Description:
- This is B box-type domain-containing protein.
- It holds the Pfam family ANCHR-like_BBOX.
- Keywords: Metal-binding, Zinc, Zinc-finger.
- About 35% of the residues lie in helices and about 10% in strands.
- The chain has helices spanning about 1-5, 20-35, 35-55, 85-90, 115-120, 155, and strands at about 75, 80-85, 105, 130, 140, 145-150.
- Helix 2 (about 20-35) runs antiparallel to helix 3 (about 35-55).
- It starts with a helix and ends in a 16-residue tail after the last helix.
Amino acid sequence: MRAAEILGVDLLEEPFLVPLLKSSLPSLSNAYQRGGLQEELFLVEVALAKERQARQYQEVPRELGCEECGEAAIDYCPACEGLFCRSCFERLHAKGRRSEHPRLELSMAGFKMKSESVQSQQIVHVQWHPFHDGQGLRYYYNFETQRSVRQLSRKELVWRPPPPLPENGREEA
Length: 173
């Protein structure tokens, strides 16, 4: 969190930068100890800029069609790795294990879910991010509530899909 503050990253707006910030902590720590922090901060800022740019290029053109019916796709399922119109998504994901699949907006197309084996080791609700403290002990931090905990309740360990997207891609006030 401190690295995000120093680098001017709003983690609520850009949560996809958390893994990059976490992976840069050891190099920032070493640079601080040897007196070369400014150079390392510059390198991390360059990496952040590249990550933001890569994120922009991952957007998918709107003219892509639904895999089922060919209509204009508006939803993406990272578990199926498929593009769907709203009616086909709802029909295919109405029951069974697919009902647990998240529905993302089309701009998120290309993102993949972790494999079952990786998920079972590290299933954490979307809002909680795992970290390790100075003693190597794991804790979880929620950037939205600015709370940290050593253990998550069973309810928070179960991954839940995000809420349905608002119609027309905009939230209603």
